């Protein structure tokens, strides 16, 4: 007679479940290790310092001792404080790096850790949705190696931490979509909602892919089994942000907060186009897509597969699959609006790419199971999906190897050269705001274009990231920059993927102008 652990579960069944759980956690741990390694390995050489990274590094430092986020002493309310407090905590644990490059690299390690935890949650989520460890492993591999995900995770950007809280929320809420909701369902709904709230407290736009899907679920009374669970989760999702606004108001900063948030809403709606592909002078999105095809080809294919996957889930999916479909539709709507009218920045794609991975995995498992139930050989679509996955991983691996083989740290090398060869406090002509952020802690930065202004400031140096100049992200036109560089001598040059050629020039100082000669306009500080 079979020995039993209890009256209900035989030892063999218990061991089988334990083996499956152990295999799943082993897969999740392996995905986390791979995700962390590919982001940390050579991370100082693989992606040049981006403008937002420097901003966020400064803002994170401002909250290391508590208080509201600030930038250069001014209150910063454009984004909620969630990520900045994570940065402040990281700094308290591992110390402050006063050099801008070292400081950014330190925070990149934080995002690498957050990405590693994110892939664990993603693997567990997909395993629960599909009941397939192999599907979860495939999604974990894609997340670890996808060039676009890697590009975003390895920079000091807010979206990595926001996505972690969002995935945790969906993982907690998912059992509520099952046929028999678990005990203490309302506590689970509240916990999932609070995790969503932390995502919103990290970046406001997360409300579109957390609170909005919950409200849709409550209207249609699906996919969650009880409308009250959806409403409770949605209410809890707004709680952290409401507390944050209350604290801001009690400190007397609500007027500043409201002014900044009003501008932020106008940017989201596209009424103000200060940055992104839809802003004036920016290169067309189509041009950028073609330019990045060799890097992000697999990402584009994955995004395209999301549409047929969505159709399959809406036709044949259960409540859990529909919950993921609502998440995907909300992200697709936000992305489509950004493309057509709103502020379109690269980070928006990440909000759509992660739910796309989930629904494509679910659709692939459904298609495979349908073929298995009919006792048919592996169909062409299933074989095609497997082949696509293999090719995608191979392409991503090649792109990764190429990015590590070719250094892309032009700003870091440029700053190192200038520290060694240019005296601190030297006036330097900057052609881009990114140059300002990299150098303004050590040099006097300005936009002295006219000879009389250069003579007055005794300017001898010019820094040019040529790709930004050619794409219109510069104070000057390409013609003006070429005119300046023809007058000088090249001191330093580095060619990288992010900024093209980063160059430092030595300019002759124009002879002093007599008092009153020329126009002093166009000088810099």
UniProtKB/TrEMBL annotation:
In which compartments does the protein localize?
Cell membrane
Which domain of life, per UniProt? Bacteria
Keyword annotations = Cell membrane, Glycosyltransferase, Membrane, Transferase, Transmembrane, Transmembrane helix
Span-the-membrane segments of this chain are 109-127, 134-150, 156-173, 185-201, 207-224, 231-254, 293-313, 325-342, 348-365, 377-398
Domain ArnT-like N-terminal, by residue range, is 104-232
Q: Which InterPro entries does its entry note?
A: ArnT-like_N, LipidA_mod_glycosyltrf_83
The annotated topology with respect to the bilayer is: Multi-pass membrane protein
User: Chief location of this protein?
Assistant: membrane
Q: Which PANTHER family match?
A: MANNOSYLTRANSFERASE YKCB-RELATED, MEMBRANE PROTEIN
| UniProt name for this protein | ArnT-like N-terminal domain-containing protein
Q: Which organism is it from?
A: Streptomyces indiaensis
């Amino acid at each position: 007679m079979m020995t039993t652990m209890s009256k209900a579960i035989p030892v063999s069944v218990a061991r089988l479940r334990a083996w499956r759980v152990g295999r799943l956690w082993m897969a999740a741990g392996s995905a986390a290790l791979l995700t962390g390694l590919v982001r940390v390995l050579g991370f100082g050489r693989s992606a040049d310092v981006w403008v937002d990274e420097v901003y966020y590094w400064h803002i994170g430092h401002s909250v290391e001792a508590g208080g509201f986020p600030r930038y250069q002493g001014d209150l910063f309310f454009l984004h909620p404080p969630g990520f900045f407090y994570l940065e402040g905590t990281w700094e308290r644990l591992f110390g402050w790096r006063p050099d801008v490059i070292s400081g950014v690299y330190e925070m990149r390690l934080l995002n690498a850790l957050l990405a590693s935890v994110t892939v664990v949650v993603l693997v567990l989520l997909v395993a629960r949705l599909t009941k397939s460890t192999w599907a979860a492993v495939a999604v974990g591999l894609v997340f670890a190696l996808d060039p676009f995900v890697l590009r975003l995770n390895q920079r000091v950007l807010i979206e990595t931490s926001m996505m972690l809280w969002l995935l945790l929320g969906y993982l907690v809420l998912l059992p509520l979509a099952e046929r028999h909701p678990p005990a203490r369902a309302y506590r689970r709904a509240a916990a999932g909602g609070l995790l969503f709230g932390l995502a919103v407290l990290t970046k406001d736009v997360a409300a579109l892919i957390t609170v909005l899907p919950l409200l849709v679920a409550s209207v249609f009374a699906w996919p969650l089994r009880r409308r009250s669970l959806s409403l409770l989760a949605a209410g809890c999702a707004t709680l952290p942000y409401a507390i944050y606004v209350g604290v801001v108001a009690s400190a007397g900063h609500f007027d500043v907060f409201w002014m900044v948030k009003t501008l932020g809403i106008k940017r989201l709606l596209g009424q103000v186009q200060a940055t992104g592909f839809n802003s004036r002078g920016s290169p067309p999105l189509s041009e950028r897509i073609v330019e990045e095809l060799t890097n992000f080809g697999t990402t584009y294919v994955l995004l395209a597969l999301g549409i047929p996957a969505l159709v399959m889930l809406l036709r044949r999916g259960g409540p859990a699959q529909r919950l993921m479909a609502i998440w995907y539709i909300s992200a697709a709507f936000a992305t489509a609006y950004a493309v057509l009218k709103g502020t379109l920045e690269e980070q928006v794609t990440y909000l759509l790419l992660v739910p796309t991975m989930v629904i494509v995995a679910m659709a692939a498992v459904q298609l495979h199971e349908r073929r298995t139930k009919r006792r048919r050989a592996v169909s062409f679509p299933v074989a095609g999906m497997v082949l696509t996955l293999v090719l995608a991983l191979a392409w991503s691996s090649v792109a990764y190897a190429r990015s590590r083989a070719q250094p892309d740290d032009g700003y870091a090398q440029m700053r190192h050269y200038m520290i060694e060869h240019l005296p601190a406090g030297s006036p330097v002509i900057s052609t881009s705001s990114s140059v300002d952020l990299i150098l303004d802690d050590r040099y006097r930065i300005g936009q002295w274009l006219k000879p009389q202004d250069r003579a007055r400031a005794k300017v001898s140096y010019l820094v040019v990231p040529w790709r930004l100049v050619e794409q219109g992200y510069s104070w000057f036109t390409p013609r003006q920059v070429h005119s300046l560089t023809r007058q000088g001598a090249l001191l330093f040059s580095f060619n990288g993927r992010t900024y093209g050629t980063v160059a430092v020039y030595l300019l002759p100082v124009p002879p002093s102008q007599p008092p009153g000669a020329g126009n002093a306009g166009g000088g810099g500080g």
